[in-house]
Write a structure and sequence with these properties.
two-stranded antiparallel ribbon, 8 helices, globular, binds flavin mononucleotide
Length: about 250
Amino acid sequence: MAENIGKEFMHKTVHACLSQPGEKSGVPQPPLEYPIPAAARRIALPEPPFDSIPAVDLFAAIQERRSVRQYSQQALTLDELSWLLWVTQGVQQITDRPATLRPVPSAGARHALETYLLVNRVEGLTAGLYRYAALENELIEVSLSAEVIQGIALACRSSQKICQESALTFIWVAVAERMTWRYSERGYRFLHLDAGHVCQNLYLAAEAVGCGVCAIGGYNDIEINSLLELDGDELFVIYLATVGKR
Ligand SMILES: Cc1cc2nc3c(=O)[nH]c(=O)nc-3n(C[C@H](O)[C@H](O)[C@H](O)COP(=O)(O)O)c2cc1C
């Protein structure tokens, strides 16, 4: 992998949460979703098209899964995007705790990830950076700046080309406090484990909509966090994956 500037963030985050977890100290639970700015442009997503997604044999999907780094020029539909967002982070239920239940497992149902999307080719969406508001099933427009789009691909170093050529890139952001509130420093580990589950669901479910996926762990933390306006401590990019039609 290219130079990895992750250590600095890991140490900062671990040190920041070595104390008693917030839950035990009476700190209120962080919100289930990162707040949506009042002035944000919000785009309603269609309901995931459960009835029209072709059935895929799970064993075949597992057996044939490979990382795909070459994509056709075909765009994804908004329905397909809605489906991929649902399989990775969709909210199925809000329990009394309150906590969310989703198609992926998460330590203590903390679900401490937010999904950003770098969109190149999705029908009905201008190319740009968006965030998925899972509770509302909406996209929040974050930036349509060419500089941001280009910068994110550049931050992915050796994977720059696949970011540029894919239909879209999922960018999973850790909201550390949502996890460390309960699990303190061990929560840092759980954030990474959770991200792995999410990406694996994307790999397998993408088969159903004729897409291939490639996980990306090699990226420059400082550059990408800065482009997404994340502080790198409490909020940081944890994992990415490109998606495109085969
Ligand atoms: C944590 C993780 C990080 C990865 N990072 C990258 C990456 O930065 N760029 C890339 O092209 N592939 C990346 N991959 C994909 C691996 O290279 C790929 O899974 C591996 O070569 C095995 O190939 P397969 O997925 O086709 O079975 C990553 C995979 C994982 C699980």
